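Changelog note: in this version the structure field was regenerated for every chain. One regenerated record is shown below for reference.
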Amino acid sequence: MTDVKVASECAKRLQALAEMNRIRIIDCLRTGQKNVTELATLLNVEIVNVSHHLGVLRAAELVNDVKDGRFVIYSLNPQFFSNDATNSTFANFGWCKIEIPQN
């Protein structure tokens, strides 16, 4: 039986991903780190909306952020995301492992 804490943490991360633009942000970050402006441009979404979604992903510990001058640079948290030899990206939340298909 799955440990309650593991199940709870997995559910928290899956809930953070359960929104179209958050999935799109994760997809954009697969190719490397980006700031909010870059993500907003790639997604054709308002900066304020991208910032909100990044906050949810950050709270779920799915993305890392580093201050670089006046910008904050976001990247996928390697604790949960990895690439294989075929450049497929996998999300491993402890209880479940998900392959994120390439575009």
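Spot check on this record: Helices lie at 4-17, 20-29, 36-43, 47-59. The beta strands are 34-35, 63-68, 71-76, 81-83, 89-92, 97-100.
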